[in-house]
Structures are given as structure tokens and as C-alpha cells.
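Re-run with default settings, no changes from the original entry. Doing this only to confirm the output is reproducible before filing.
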Amino acid sequence: MPPPKAKGGKMLSLINWRLKVTINDGRALTGQMLAFDRHMNLVLADCEEFRRIRPKKKAGEETAPEQEMKRTLGLVILRGETVVSISVEGPPPATDDDKKGAIPAGPGRGMPAGRGMGMMPPMGAPGIARPPMPFAPPGMPGPPPGFRPPGFPPGAPFGGPPPAGFAGPPPGFQPPQ
């Protein structure tokens, strides 16, 4: 029995259903419809192709029996111009509610890609009492030319002894025990 009519029309109600599509060269494609558009272009998953082949006539035979050849295609994008007819083969596959929407685990691991800031170093996020990172993040060799941290006057050497007032911890500071 075909599915109930959806608001978007008959084709929208057939999404994920198993369909048999006949095309203009006589082949029949059976697969799960994933998508369509206004031109009737179709995306079929787990698609199989069926075609009828007439064997060569031999001398003395009047009619030769037709053979049906089956070929597994997989994911197919079918141009709407070639579609002659569509019929329902079966309902959508049953899905488990607990697995619905879950992304299957794949190989590899998550890594940042492209340009920009790299991941945090293995020692974790900088804390209040910890000195800044001894190395620059990947892709950043150091401060840009002309950059001075706050408290360093333009003529003071960068990287030398700290200026006055920055020599030690603030008054009343208790190190962690």
C-alpha cells in the first residue's frame, strides 16, 4: 500500500521508500529514493539495474527466451529526462529509535584542518599562576614585528629582565600548596 499523501506532494511522501524506476532505454532501476527535484532527477541508494536481453536467434528457432540481467550499482543519480515510470516496491527500512540520529563511528581522529590557530598544547589551558607557553602555537612563529606586551616601553629590550614593578608576584600572593 502506498504511503499517505504528504503536504509537499506524492514524491515527497515517497522519500526513503524502495522504488522501481523504468527509464527510456528499457532498463529498470530499483533502489531507495533519497532525494528528487522539480526536474524529476532522482538519487537512489542501494540501486540495482535490471535489463532484458534477447539472445541471438539461431537457425531453426522461432523465438528465443528473454533473459533478465541484474547488476548492482550502489548510489545512483538519475537524470529526470530519462524517467518513464516510477512504482513503489516496498516501504522504508525499519529503524531502531535508539540508533536514530546517531553518527556512526568512523576511522581516524578529529584534527584541526587548514590555517589558523592550532590546538592547545598538551599541558592544557594557561592558568593564573602558570607562566605563558614557552613555545608559540603551530603556525605562529612568534610576535609580529613591532609588537610589545603591555608595560614594555618602545625603547626597552623585549625578552630581557622585566621592567620595574613586574619582578615578582603581587603583594599578598600565596602560592598553591
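Residues 117 and 137 are 7 Å apart (CA to CA). The chain has a mean pLDDT of 76.
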